[in-house]
Amino acid sequence: MPGRRAALRGIVMRATFSVTRALAALALISAFGLTSHERANAQAPPGASAAAGAHGANAAERSADEKAIKGVIQAFLDTRDKNDEAGLGALLTPDVDQQQTSGAMRHGREAVVKGSLSTQRETGGTRTITVDSLRFISSDVAIADGRYDSLGRADGTDQHMLTSMVLHREAGGWKIAAIRNMRPPAAAH
Question: For residue 48, with 0-12 CB atoms within 10 Å meaning exposed, 13-18 middle and 19 or more buried, which class applies?
Fold first, then answer.
Protein backbone atom coordinates (compact mmCIF):
# COMPACT_ATOMS: atom_id res chain seq x y z
CA MET A 1 0.00 0.00 0.00
CA PRO A 2 2.80 2.54 0.72
CA GLY A 3 4.13 2.08 -2.83
CA ARG A 4 0.69 2.83 -4.23
CA ARG A 5 0.39 5.98 -2.11
CA ALA A 6 3.77 7.20 -3.34
CA ALA A 7 2.75 6.51 -6.93
CA LEU A 8 -0.50 8.43 -6.43
CA ARG A 9 1.38 11.36 -4.87
CA GLY A 10 3.67 11.41 -7.90
CA ILE A 11 0.70 11.45 -10.27
CA VAL A 12 -0.93 14.29 -8.32
CA MET A 13 2.33 16.26 -8.32
CA ARG A 14 2.80 15.86 -12.09
CA ALA A 15 -0.84 16.80 -12.71
CA THR A 16 -0.50 19.90 -10.51
CA PHE A 17 2.69 20.92 -12.33
CA SER A 18 0.96 20.40 -15.72
CA VAL A 19 -2.03 22.49 -14.66
CA THR A 20 0.31 25.26 -13.47
CA ARG A 21 2.06 25.24 -16.86
CA ALA A 22 -1.25 25.32 -18.72
CA LEU A 23 -2.52 28.25 -16.63
CA ALA A 24 0.71 30.14 -17.25
CA ALA A 25 0.37 29.53 -20.98
CA LEU A 26 -3.23 30.78 -20.96
CA ALA A 27 -2.19 33.88 -19.04
CA LEU A 28 0.54 34.59 -21.57
CA ILE A 29 -1.80 34.13 -24.49
CA SER A 30 -4.19 36.57 -22.88
CA ALA A 31 -1.47 39.06 -21.91
CA PHE A 32 0.50 39.05 -25.13
CA GLY A 33 -2.37 38.50 -27.59
CA LEU A 34 -0.82 35.63 -29.52
CA THR A 35 -2.07 35.01 -33.04
CA SER A 36 -4.05 31.91 -33.96
CA HIS A 37 -0.93 30.56 -35.73
CA GLU A 38 1.14 30.98 -32.56
CA ARG A 39 -1.60 29.38 -30.43
CA ALA A 40 -1.70 26.37 -32.78
CA ASN A 41 2.07 25.98 -32.58
CA ALA A 42 2.07 26.39 -28.80
CA GLN A 43 -0.45 23.54 -28.53
CA ALA A 44 1.36 21.20 -30.93
CA PRO A 45 2.65 18.06 -29.21
CA PRO A 46 6.39 17.74 -28.65
CA GLY A 47 8.15 16.53 -31.77
CA ALA A 48 5.31 17.60 -34.08
CA SER A 49 6.38 19.42 -37.23
CA ALA A 50 4.54 22.60 -36.25
CA ALA A 51 6.51 22.75 -33.00
CA ALA A 52 9.85 21.90 -34.62
CA GLY A 53 9.90 25.06 -36.71
CA ALA A 54 7.67 27.12 -34.45
CA HIS A 55 7.48 30.78 -35.32
CA GLY A 56 10.17 30.70 -37.99
CA ALA A 57 12.96 29.82 -35.58
CA ASN A 58 15.59 27.56 -37.06
CA ALA A 59 17.53 25.08 -34.94
CA ALA A 60 20.47 27.46 -34.43
CA GLU A 61 18.20 30.32 -33.32
CA ARG A 62 16.29 28.02 -30.97
CA SER A 63 19.53 26.70 -29.50
CA ALA A 64 20.77 30.27 -28.96
CA ASP A 65 17.47 31.17 -27.25
CA GLU A 66 17.68 28.12 -24.99
CA LYS A 67 21.23 29.02 -24.01
CA ALA A 68 20.24 32.65 -23.35
CA ILE A 69 17.25 31.63 -21.23
CA LYS A 70 19.34 29.24 -19.13
CA GLY A 71 21.88 32.06 -18.76
CA VAL A 72 19.18 34.41 -17.43
CA ILE A 73 18.04 31.78 -14.93
CA GLN A 74 21.64 31.28 -13.73
CA ALA A 75 22.15 35.06 -13.55
CA PHE A 76 18.98 35.24 -11.40
CA LEU A 77 20.65 32.91 -8.89
CA ASP A 78 24.07 34.59 -9.15
CA THR A 79 22.73 38.10 -8.55
CA ARG A 80 20.81 36.83 -5.51
CA ASP A 81 24.01 35.29 -4.13
CA LYS A 82 25.87 38.59 -4.65
CA ASN A 83 23.02 40.65 -3.13
CA ASP A 84 23.04 42.63 -6.40
CA GLU A 85 19.78 44.57 -6.40
CA ALA A 86 20.36 46.37 -9.71
CA GLY A 87 21.59 43.22 -11.46
CA LEU A 88 18.64 41.19 -10.24
CA GLY A 89 16.15 43.88 -11.25
CA ALA A 90 17.63 44.02 -14.77
CA LEU A 91 16.67 40.34 -15.28
CA LEU A 92 12.98 40.90 -14.52
CA THR A 93 10.07 42.46 -16.41
CA PRO A 94 8.49 45.46 -14.64
CA ASP A 95 5.31 43.46 -13.94
CA VAL A 96 7.02 40.21 -12.86
CA ASP A 97 5.33 38.19 -10.16
CA GLN A 98 6.57 35.37 -7.97
CA GLN A 99 4.73 32.70 -6.03
CA GLN A 100 6.90 31.58 -3.17
CA THR A 101 6.96 28.00 -1.92
CA SER A 102 4.78 29.18 0.97
CA GLY A 103 2.12 30.24 -1.54
CA ALA A 104 2.62 33.96 -0.83
CA MET A 105 2.81 36.20 -3.91
CA ARG A 106 5.17 39.03 -4.75
CA HIS A 107 3.97 41.46 -7.44
CA GLY A 108 6.21 43.78 -9.44
CA ARG A 109 9.95 44.07 -9.97
CA GLU A 110 10.67 45.93 -6.73
CA ALA A 111 8.78 43.40 -4.57
CA VAL A 112 10.44 40.41 -6.24
CA VAL A 113 13.92 41.93 -5.96
CA LYS A 114 13.57 43.01 -2.34
CA GLY A 115 11.83 39.79 -1.31
CA SER A 116 14.31 37.53 -3.09
CA LEU A 117 17.32 39.28 -1.61
CA SER A 118 15.75 39.31 1.85
CA THR A 119 15.04 35.57 1.64
CA GLN A 120 18.60 34.93 0.46
CA ARG A 121 20.06 36.88 3.40
CA GLU A 122 17.74 35.23 5.94
CA THR A 123 18.05 31.63 4.81
CA GLY A 124 21.57 31.59 3.35
CA GLY A 125 22.76 28.56 1.47
CA THR A 126 23.35 27.88 -2.18
CA ARG A 127 20.52 27.74 -4.70
CA THR A 128 20.57 25.84 -7.97
CA ILE A 129 18.00 25.45 -10.71
CA THR A 130 18.29 22.58 -13.16
CA VAL A 131 16.12 23.28 -16.21
CA ASP A 132 14.43 20.00 -17.15
CA SER A 133 12.05 21.37 -19.76
CA LEU A 134 11.96 24.47 -21.93
CA ARG A 135 8.87 25.15 -24.02
CA PHE A 136 8.39 28.04 -26.41
CA ILE A 137 4.84 29.44 -26.35
CA SER A 138 5.81 31.87 -29.10
CA SER A 139 9.08 33.15 -30.51
CA ASP A 140 9.20 35.67 -27.63
CA VAL A 141 7.68 33.69 -24.72
CA ALA A 142 9.01 30.54 -23.08
CA ILE A 143 8.28 28.42 -20.01
CA ALA A 144 11.21 26.84 -18.17
CA ASP A 145 10.45 24.06 -15.68
CA GLY A 146 13.00 22.51 -13.40
CA ARG A 147 14.27 21.39 -10.07
CA TYR A 148 15.08 24.12 -7.57
CA ASP A 149 17.39 23.17 -4.72
CA SER A 150 18.43 25.25 -1.72
CA LEU A 151 21.38 23.59 0.02
CA GLY A 152 23.32 24.37 3.20
CA ARG A 153 20.73 26.75 4.58
CA ALA A 154 21.29 28.65 7.83
CA ASP A 155 18.80 26.39 9.63
CA GLY A 156 20.82 23.32 8.64
CA THR A 157 18.26 22.01 6.16
CA ASP A 158 18.32 21.37 2.44
CA GLN A 159 15.16 22.03 0.42
CA HIS A 160 14.30 20.33 -2.85
CA MET A 161 11.58 22.13 -4.78
CA LEU A 162 10.25 22.67 -8.28
CA THR A 163 10.13 25.92 -10.22
CA SER A 164 8.38 27.14 -13.31
CA MET A 165 9.51 30.40 -14.90
CA VAL A 166 7.91 32.32 -17.73
CA LEU A 167 10.39 34.35 -19.77
CA HIS A 168 9.63 37.08 -22.29
CA ARG A 169 12.01 38.38 -24.96
CA GLU A 170 12.24 42.16 -24.88
CA ALA A 171 14.53 44.59 -26.74
CA GLY A 172 17.35 43.94 -24.26
CA GLY A 173 17.03 40.15 -24.32
CA TRP A 174 15.13 37.55 -22.32
CA LYS A 175 13.55 38.64 -19.01
CA ILE A 176 11.77 36.71 -16.27
CA ALA A 177 8.05 37.56 -16.26
CA ALA A 178 6.76 35.03 -13.71
CA ILE A 179 8.16 32.58 -11.17
CA ARG A 180 6.23 29.75 -9.53
CA ASN A 181 8.04 27.81 -6.82
CA MET A 182 6.49 24.75 -5.23
CA ARG A 183 7.35 21.89 -2.95
CA PRO A 184 6.72 18.43 -4.39
CA PRO A 185 5.19 15.74 -2.20
CA ALA A 186 7.95 14.14 -0.10
CA ALA A 187 7.81 10.81 -1.99
CA ALA A 188 8.10 12.47 -5.40
CA HIS A 189 11.66 13.82 -5.02
Answer: exposed
